[in-house]
Amino acid sequence: MLSKNQFKHLRSLRSKKNRYACRQFIVEGETIVGELLNSLDNRIQLVLCTSRYQQSLSTQALRQLGERLILCDESVLRGISSLDSPSPVLALLDMPRETNEITPTRGLGLYLDGIRDPGNLGTIIRVADWFGLHTISLAADCVDVYNPKTLQASMGSFSRVETRVASLKSIQAAQPDLALLGTCIDEGIDALEFDWPADALLIIGSESHGVRSEHESAISHWLSIPRGKTSTGAESLNAAVAAGILGAAYFRSCR
Amino acid sequence: MLSKNQFKHLRSLRSKKNRYACRQFIVEGETIVGELLNSLDNRIQLVLCTSRYQQSLSTQALRQLGERLILCDESVLRGISSLDSPSPVLALLDMPRETNEITPTRGLGLYLDGIRDPGNLGTIIRVADWFGLHTISLAADCVDVYNPKTLQASMGSFSRVETRVASLKSIQAAQPDLALLGTCIDEGIDALEFDWPADALLIIGSESHGVRSEHESAISHWLSIPRGKTSTGAESLNAAVAAGILGAAYFRSCR
After folding, report:
1. Partners of residue B189 in chain A, C-beta under 8 Å
2. Three-class SS of residue B187?
3. Which residues on A lie below 8 Å from B231 (Cβ)?
4. How far apart, in whole angstroms, are the C-alpha atoms of residue B193 and residue A103?
5. Are residues B244 and A249, on separate chains, in Cβ contact within 8 Å?
6. Residues in contact with A124: Cβ distance below 8 Å, sequence separation at least 6, in sequence order
7. B9: left (phi > 0), else alpha (psi -120 to 50), else beta?
8. ipTM of the complex
9. Which residues, 6 or more positions from B230, have their beta carbon under 8 angstroms from its beta carbon?
10. Rounded distance, CA B202 to CA B166, Å?
11. A69 has a pLDDT exceeding 90
């Protein structure tokens, strides 16, 4: 049974400050928790679920979890969840160890220059997982990777893609010859015809302001996704959709 | 001032049934309403906003709106809104007239085979607007175009992209020679190398089940977006991201 203190602790993880204070976070949803049981078992501290969900678990999963599995009512899960529609299962995980080391980017890396929408960040992590991108670096003002909506939108990809909070300057200092590519709405080179360098850091701007002007001088090429000829007024593409198109363009160019 | 009956009516439009019963819907958000004032003025029935927002409106917009502009407190807007963070302005609009006529698809059309997430639908509408796609056809079990989260994610693109609820059969009956292209996760033709037909209907499957099996026999080509070589486990791409990559691939092939 879940103790009052455990409930309070889990509920407190809705706040980013508390997540980082104890370096734990919560993942919700049947598909994602199911995936984690297979891949990240050693980081799972607790699994809370309804007795109905428990019945769907394999004997192996049940044995593996042992006392880490706690049954509870939907109302308890709802009290902990920060999603609109709470799921019948959630898991408490330890964050991976933090490191200040900046490993060099091989292949295509992404730098998110202030992505604020948790759904966009999660979807970009999913894009990076699909294309096997090296690392996602996040400017300090990006939304938190462990935000429940980010984790949900990533569909489990957060457990396979390395993310790090880093300034563009520190990445440049660690790897001065890395090509930095900027993205802009119009007037850049057509990303689908661009001859991409094998190693590059692609900078995706924030939803409302694009790439920060302080980074402009560091950028060697600006890329755009051309509109259709019959387009009549769209101002921009969603940041995650743009990341997907650019990722596809990179892999096409490298083949 | 907003009457009690007006408030009740506006609030009732949170339900799809009520929206279609009176063929009206609500749009929220400063950017979107700002765009609508410029482009769709004749469909706007009311604009509700805080006095602070009113100050940001041009004299022309104020004159144009006249008595259709109603000032109200944030609490009233919150009472009507169905978004997590209500904005200082919302507009009541008439739906465009419904037509049963199926106009032939020229260029690339999209058929959404059961998209359930309102954010995904809105983002796909934005993709279609960017690429200037002809029409989006929706299977009857798609989420509603006038769902507030769909409209918000479309960023105003809903006013420029034609959408229609239609069965695949009715589209085929109206245009028997139209190429139907299916999308699948693996094993399809690489969409980025495909020689796209000039006119085609691209079928995007639902988030959880893909393209319905009953449509398989009608499909002439299956397309996929290849994973990166270093991808280690992503199961799929987000439906709107996939639509964006496929749209970009189409336009690249047609250039």
Report:
1. none
2. coil
3. 129-132
4. 33
5. no
6. A110, A112, A115, A136, A204, A239, A240, A243
7. alpha
8. 0.93
9. A107, A132, A133
10. 14
11. yes
The DSSP element (H or E) to which A162 belongs, if any, is strand A162-165
> What tokens appear for B186 in the block?
């693996």
State pLDDT tens for residues A5-52.
999 999 999 999 999 999 999 999 988 898 888 777 788 999 999 999
In this complex, do A238 and B244 lie within 8 Å of one another by their Cβ atoms? yes
Q: Report the alpha-carbon distance of residue A37 to residue A64 in Å, rounded.
A: 9
pTM: 0.94
- Provide the token pair at A48: 């809370």
Query: Do residue B129 and residue A249 have CB atoms under 8 angstroms apart?
Result: no
Question: With bands split at pLDDT 50, 70 and 90, how would you rate the model's confidence at B233?
Answer: confident
Cα–Cα distance measured from residue B60 to residue B66, given in angstroms and rounded to the nearest whole number: 10
Q: Would you state the structure tokens that stand for residue B161, as one six-digit string?
A: 């992209």
d(CA A28, CA A14): 12
Residue B140 contacts by C-beta under 8 Å, 6 or more apart in sequence?
B165, B167
